[in-house]
Amino acid sequence: MISQAVIKEFERILGKEKVFLDETDRHTYSYDAAVLEPVLPSVVLRPTSSEELGRLVRICNENSIPLTVRGAGTNLSGGTIPKKGGAVVLTNALNKILEINTEDLYAIVQPGVVTAKFAAAVEAKGLFYPPDPGSQAVSTLGGNVAENAGGLRGLKYGVTRDYVMGLEFFDVNGEIVKTGSRTVKCVTGYNLAALMVGSEGTLGVFDKIILKLIPMPTGRKAMMAIFDNVIKASETVAAIIAHRIVPATLEFMDNFTIRTVEDYSRVGLPTDAAALLLIEVDGHPAQVEEDAAKVESICREMGAMKIRVAQDAAERDKVWEARRAALSALAKLKPTVVLEDATVPRSKIPAMIQALEEISRRFNLTIGTFGHAGDGNLHPTILTDKRNKEEWHRVEAAIDAIFDKALGLGGTLSGEHGIGMAKSRYLEKETSKGTILFSRRIKAALDPKGILNPGKIIGE
Amino acid sequence: MISQAVIKEFERILGKEKVFLDETDRHTYSYDAAVLEPVLPSVVLRPTSSEELGRLVRICNENSIPLTVRGAGTNLSGGTIPKKGGAVVLTNALNKILEINTEDLYAIVQPGVVTAKFAAAVEAKGLFYPPDPGSQAVSTLGGNVAENAGGLRGLKYGVTRDYVMGLEFFDVNGEIVKTGSRTVKCVTGYNLAALMVGSEGTLGVFDKIILKLIPMPTGRKAMMAIFDNVIKASETVAAIIAHRIVPATLEFMDNFTIRTVEDYSRVGLPTDAAALLLIEVDGHPAQVEEDAAKVESICREMGAMKIRVAQDAAERDKVWEARRAALSALAKLKPTVVLEDATVPRSKIPAMIQALEEISRRFNLTIGTFGHAGDGNLHPTILTDKRNKEEWHRVEAAIDAIFDKALGLGGTLSGEHGIGMAKSRYLEKETSKGTILFSRRIKAALDPKGILNPGKIIGE
């Protein structure tokens, strides 16, 4: 619990109106999008300047108060669930785009800027910020960096870490650390910006983020390939990559997901298809035409029943909106939705999809599978009810089986959702005891009292 | 000094023939390509397997023996200069390409693989590994990763860190740490691979490196734009980027460099030009044609006297070879050659080039300037003789002035050569006291005895 003296200190720094103590407020920030129990913080703080933010960090450290920074709380692995009795620091008032530099192709932002708003501001200047996590409409860039968020375009354009050129952040003492640069090349000191990417708020608190921008591709074309067989669809993914075509997006949806999404969004998806691939190629218009033609012919060769090419931007956007609605649509069906993101090398997608079907049968569970097939990052989604203990045990066993399969195929536990609290205990399975110890040494050195988002990634 | 018992232990593990104690051998590994005094190690070790490598690390730590890993020793900031009395570990027998995976677009290599050999092996399979540091003909991939090596293609394709998907390395205790993945997306645990990139051998010893590969572009076109005025040339660089064209390479050479290179390599460079831009665009053939035409017209508008387009691959290669010879050519002119790599946002290239001319005059020094103008990474090269103390003082003052200017323009101390021993004392100027302390905390936690390449980046 936090002493009254410290609360007074918070109020002195922020003003009373930015220190939230009501139980309702604290409940609001006790959970995120992961299937985990809520944990009530003692206080919720809403700084409006860098200076306030740095002072809060210092006070929390001095008083050993656990501190969890929160953007939009869309985290799927419990990364934003606070420590009992600790403080939640909101970034939603630190939401300024400080600079978009069109000459040198970078932007500087505060952590609370909303991803989609930023992408739109960048696009308005003719530039492109590719990372597009599913939650981009509400997620914040600070959260994206803390989680190394992925998205639909990972295949061709990489993920958030590929766009972080530099960071300014507060260490646990509230001292400012500057790392990286506005330049494409920078080897000045340790690559601390990269260490902070994906560190889930456990090593420091972001103040400013320098993001790389690229020119907007001049052409794009989207299509939908419809299959009567899941395996054919998944083999098509591998075939496209093997032909040296790297689409901007290459998404997969199984029949269960197609029907659920169609029911939810009515965009005219073929509900009788066993699987769909949603493919977009972009780049120079000539390249786009060629790639689109090649992709179409590969799909046909691999046995697609039908291929629909989006005739205009509106038609294209409708399909992508439907795809983005997949999680929301699935979430409506059952009280508990477990969205996994074990990831495999892309050529192993057919094996992984076969394994998911087998796991669904073996544990007698409803698993809808969709996701970023082009980069091997599927989202098997288990629909269940956590209150049903017997079924929940089967869910846990199925998750273990999914992880084992992904690792067996040379993959990884998490492609883009993070380890958080949900997967912490599996970490050693993929890495080594030495890796955990090495990570804990870093954590202990940078946060000796363990106040920065305790319990995430490497456990307590 | 290392005790006889430890030497015996090294010989037991490696065999006598891989433990070098002769003064001649030790001299060979006492220096690198930086302008710094050589430092004699006590022993040079040449492991031939991962197991041997791990055991050497452990023994060095147990016996507090400073350990410097060395690839080809092409380092320009003293990163491979050992600690007096310490051990040098050679990676040249750990030189196997373990896998090139054409389906999933990655490769796994040992640290001693030579960069250019690897790039050629990848190209033979129709794929592309873009990072191309100037020393690629001899440099090793382990060295490239340890230094986050750049090269001519940084502008469009990024630098080494953009291609490191995963690493297995030995921590200071000789325990294996696994980080990253064979998948495009991976957020399993801290981004340790990225922390190791550019850490200059101070945090661990690489065992295996997973590198990202991309499809080879299908078209390319190179041209040379000739200017009678340095500023016009430098403004053209900014104009090209501002037109949203990102060439694969965009190199600058001033008159002094042109004349020196031509004298050295006789490829027909225009020795009366004030400056040259060497530009290559690549991608889809239609894109290449368009971009090349646009670049040509921008160059003309900006006042280029002449533009020569390479008519075939042989002509193109000849120009790039000449460009790559710049350092060697300049190095022949004077006993001491100081190659700097302060880097600025690309729009600041004209200001930087003007500043370099002014600094050259102010300190009465010969400075040849060439380099990767497209990514703001120039290489002002000071020709001098370190034995001339009076001139050397002016050189040091000029280097300070170059750093101050680059930082004043929003740039960085080092784009690609590393901090090593040469720039360690300047680090705080660019970052902050907090940054140095934060970095030292990491170093102390991961290498408590300070045996891993002591004195590099953050000083002793």
Automatic annotation (TrEMBL), chains A, B:
<dbReference type="GO" id="GO:0016491">
    <property type="term" value="F:oxidoreductase activity"/>
</dbReference>
<keyword id="KW-0560">Oxidoreductase</keyword>
<comment type="similarity">
    <text>Belongs to the FAD-binding oxidoreductase/transferase type 4 family.</text>
</comment>
<dbReference type="Pfam" id="PF02913">
    <property type="entry name" value="FAD-oxidase_C"/>
</dbReference>
<keyword id="KW-0274">FAD</keyword>
<feature type="domain" description="FAD-binding PCMH-type">
    <location>
        <begin position="36"/>
        <end position="216"/>
    </location>
</feature>
<dbReference type="InterPro" id="IPR016171">
    <property type="entry name" value="Vanillyl_alc_oxidase_C-sub2"/>
</dbReference>
<dbReference type="Pfam" id="PF01565">
    <property type="entry name" value="FAD_binding_4"/>
</dbReference>
<dbReference type="InterPro" id="IPR004113">
    <property type="entry name" value="FAD-bd_oxidored_4_C"/>
</dbReference>
<dbReference type="GO" id="GO:0071949">
    <property type="term" value="F:FAD binding"/>
</dbReference>
<dbReference type="InterPro" id="IPR016164">
    <property type="entry name" value="FAD-linked_Oxase-like_C"/>
</dbReference>
<dbReference type="InterPro" id="IPR051914">
    <property type="entry name" value="FAD-linked_OxidoTrans_Type4"/>
</dbReference>
<keyword id="KW-0285">Flavoprotein</keyword>
<dbReference type="InterPro" id="IPR016166">
    <property type="entry name" value="FAD-bd_PCMH"/>
</dbReference>
<protein>
    <submittedName>
        <fullName>FAD-binding protein</fullName>
    </submittedName>
</protein>
<dbReference type="InterPro" id="IPR016169">
    <property type="entry name" value="FAD-bd_PCMH_sub2"/>
</dbReference>
<dbReference type="InterPro" id="IPR036318">
    <property type="entry name" value="FAD-bd_PCMH-like_sf"/>
</dbReference>
<dbReference type="InterPro" id="IPR006094">
    <property type="entry name" value="Oxid_FAD_bind_N"/>
</dbReference>
